[in-house]
Amino acid sequence: MTAKIIDGNAVARHVRGEWKKRVEALKVRGITPGLSVIIIGNNPASRVYVRNKVKACAEVGLHSEVHEFPVDAGEQVILERIEELNRNPAIHGILVQLPMPPHLEARRLLGAISIDKDVDGFHLYNVGGLVVGENNIFPPCTPYGVQCLLEYENIPIEGQNVVVVGASNIVGKPMALMLMAKDATVSICHIKTRDLAQFTILADILIVAAGCPRLITAPMVKRGAAVIDVGINRLADGTLAGDVDFDGVKEKASFITPVPGGVGPMTVTMLICNTVAAAERNAAKQGERVAVTS
Ligand code: NAP
Question: pLDDT, tens digit, for every residue of 101-117?
Fold first, then answer.
């Protein structure tokens, strides 16, 4: 068996095309969805991610702006900017690019973002909503992108054994919750998991987000599994690799995502979706307010 290689760039293009129509519908009503990205410091990878977000916004017709702070910026000045953006009616989505410099308390800054504009989905309200299966939350973009890829490829989720390798707050844990909500049987593995292969071999859907190049090899994968590689690792020779041994595993899996060109383009795409959804919800709320007062 040779796996179908899931083309994340093609799926992302398709999804962006669909959401562009929703942006156009909002524009007819005089609303341009707006995203503010806060970046603190000079992390080169963060700068690339922010640039990609701005580019994707322009492509789909969103307004975007970048708020830059020096690496030693104090918490208060950033909190004040978040408050301003919370009040700004032209801005529907706000995110703080991670990682933050260590002197800043990420939980406090993320918690200051209005829950209606938390398009990265990291505010505890949105995290809690994911736990209890609330529909009206913003799902975190990377796991949301993985879910979208699975659905686009018609890979069944309900009743399937899903194994998520990696238990971070931004990828592994929300991923597990999202697929539990779709009635999968989910196991989460992490650095302390004994005999990782004993779990991965059972997976109908294997999602790997460990940040460990070629952690998953063919003998660890069930024949016919769908394998989603979230990992992005820069190797010593400068090339990028995922967490999965792509060449070996593709001979055994039914579906596989490449790195780059798999999950990566979906993460930015889902950020766009969340921002447009935020603008739509805001417009609906304004409409309700007008209806009540008239
Ligand atoms: P993270 O915060 O470092 O979390 C990694 C998780 O994997 C942790 O739960 C860690 O366990 C676990 N882990 C590490 N080594 C392991 C091993 N050998 N066996 C089993 N579990 C192991 O990383 P992250 O932010 O979730 O990101 C994970 C990877 O995805 C990175 O390569 C990152 O660059 C990539 N990523 C890609 C995208 C995208 O858009 N494609 C977006 C976000 C992240 P412990 O916590 O117990 O140490």
Answer: 999 999 999 999 999 99
